[in-house]
Amino acid sequence: MRKRATESTMGQEAEQMNTSLFPLYPQPRSLELREGSGAFSALFALERLSEEAMQAASAVRVKERLEAAAARWQGSAGDTEGAEPNGSVTATALHIVCRPELHAQGYTAEWNGERLEIGYSDPEGLHYAVVTLEQLIARRGLAWTSYRIEDEPDFPVRGLMLDIGRNKIPKMETLYALIDRMSELKMNHLQLYMEGFCFDYETFRDSFPEATPISGEEFRQLDAYAKERFIDLVPNQNCLGHMGPWLAKPEFAELAEHPGGQETPVGIKLPPLTLNPLDGGSIELVRAMFGELLPHFTSGYVNVNMDEPFGLGTGQSKERAQEVGVGKLYMDYAEQVFEIIRSHGKRTLMWGDILTKHEEVIPLLPKDVTVLDWNYESHTSFETNGKLLQRHGVPYYVCPGTSTWSAVTGRTDNMLANIADAARSGKTYGAAGMIVTDWGDSGHWQPLVMSYPAYAYAAGTGWQTEANLEQHEQMERYVADCMLQDDSGHAGKLILELGRYINLENSTLENMTYTNHLLNRGLSTKEKLLSETDMIIKLLVEIGGRGIPFQLDYRYDDMLAWLKEQKEAIGELQLKSGDAESVSQELAHALSIIEHGSGLHRFIFGLELPDAAAELAWLRKLHSELASIIAEFDRLWLVRNRKGGLEASTRNLHKLLNQYEERLAELESV
């Protein structure tokens, strides 16, 4: 007798799948619970397999991984399931069969209480079957109700792009751990975004003596490690806009679209950021960069980025832009980049912001280019661009964000809505992949752990969209149980809550929190802060901002109460992961940054500071706190990341500290 879920009971089945009886995330396409039960033993015996199945099982290390998962469970729980009275162990029968009709990344897993059978059509699908079984064992042990799982992904490409171009370049052990977490979430695509000297280009090494880049050999090691886990490590290097770190060097300054910097309508002058597409030296620089970078990667793809080329067609290339249009100017340069990538036998990925703004040039896009459609704000849907790209037959991925950058601990509700919209729209309008982006704007202050829920939610909705869209609670439990090994079970929920302090700021700022903005702007008067913020909002309109006038309704007392609650919640976590101590310290430190922001807000707006003596006492407190925050920031940074970039990351914090000292000197001299 079987208990099969029909379409009318799919919602009930999804709920059942996520009880403590059968925890699994991402939730699979279908699960059938059957009568009977039994327990895996600590050993698995491969039944007679075809030569093809044997080769796949060996490549994926099926037997070794399942036995290791069982041993970990027994070691943590003191479990003896599967043992005979004399202490011997009867191996669980394991049958693996190749089923060509299955999706290349799909699998079946069937347990009848005595025998485990896995079906697959490609080793990658077999790998995901083992990932599922490893998670089930890790979360509930070896004893199981009989079941059959049929599973495959909605998006063939499910990935993560981590920014290493803005200050923070992780150590190798950090990247290995990240790859492991991705594999456990059935993700299969990783990019490490680069816009500065993040890779050790030997030709240009002398221009960046302050950098601590990733070497070619290290990328080769990462590539091999990722490949073993069926993750495509895709090389990434910006090569038009976002070239500020290169153009700031005298030897490259002449290649800028605006060599002396770019004037803006609001009176703010931007430094040189974009290459001059008409200067032959620009494309030769790009050729040299990719010539050194690409041989270290086995991926068939390269992300050349080419997003946000600020000032393109308004400087050195203005005359050409007036003649042919900015879109054609952009595409003429892009085609030269595509040819460089083709010369290395690879295909191009590129951001789509310029293409979707200049629809007239989309027909010029070669068929071997995949567009990455990015959007990070929940108020804007992926639907419009999805329809556009699908209508033109352009292969594309949807790219939402973690919403953790420029926010310290993130903007949780924006992240959830942004990723959900990307998954829905991408599935509806034919996106071939979904990549969640984790940027490093404003100093890359956010700890990596703050992005774990976004990684998990993007992985879930990318694997099976409808099954996982509304499963926030199960995502939270996965973060707690599997990513952080939190015995309290609350870590995932807590991390999401830490990203909701924005709801107490009640600010109209976009793509950031007010607290992050305040700390980066520094000590100011209320009037100056409001004026400068309005100016920045107007500037952001030039790159897609909505231009909503700045409004603020900061709930100071509520913020203090919230901070107290979160400090207590951090203290109640029972983390058991290998980096548990660091995670706890990172969470506490991130909270201290937010708390300091609230203190700075109090000082600037004169909240409950009735006289000069009160102002002086509060300023002394702020100075002492910030000095401690910077010291802890430095220490925690070096636990997971290389030193290069640290000074740049904390530059605005040091500026604020100096401002405190100057203001203290003024007040104390009165």
TrEMBL record:
The active site is at 308 (proton donor). Pfam families: Glyco_hydro_20, Glyco_hydro_20b. GO terms for molecular function: beta-N-acetylhexosaminidase activity. One of its GO terms (biological process) is carbohydrate metabolic process. The keyword Hydrolase applies. InterPro entries: Beta_hexosaminidase_sua/sub, GH, Glyco_hydro_20_cat, Hex-like_dom2, HEX_bac_N. It catalyses: Hydrolysis of terminal non-reducing N-acetyl-D-hexosamine residues in N-acetyl-beta-D-hexosaminides. GO terms for cellular component: membrane. Belongs to the glycosyl hydrolase 20 family. This is beta-N-acetylhexosaminidase. The lineage of its organism: Bacteria, Bacillati, Bacillota, Bacilli, Bacillales.
